[in-house]
UniProtKB/TrEMBL annotation:
UniProt lineage: Eukaryota, Viridiplantae, Streptophyta, Embryophyta, Tracheophyta
Database matches in Gene3D superfamilies: 3.30.70.100
Protein name (database record): HMA domain-containing protein
Cited InterPro entries: HIPP46 (IPR044296)
């Protein structure tokens, strides 16, 4: 089943945005990653069987989410 996950993250620079998208894209089952929101502060992940907990955990470790 395809699912859409939107996570609000705190990213201060373009390098952080690129890294956040790369991390999400490397998760199993991901078909699409992108940024949403006026400030591009929401990571959108679309895919089949994506483990949002793993992605969220990494974002928390990087200090992008709390």
């Amino acid at each position: 089943m395809t699912q859409k996950i939107v996570m609000k993250v705190q990213m201060s620079c373009q390098k952080c945005q690129t890294k956040a998208l790369t991390v999400a894209a490397e998760a199993n089952g991901v078909n699409f990653v992108g940024l949403e929101g006026a400030e591009k502060d929401k990571v959108v992940v679309i895919g089949d069987g994506v483990d949002c907990c793993k992605v969220g955990y990494y974002y928390e470790e990087e200090g992008w989410a709390n």
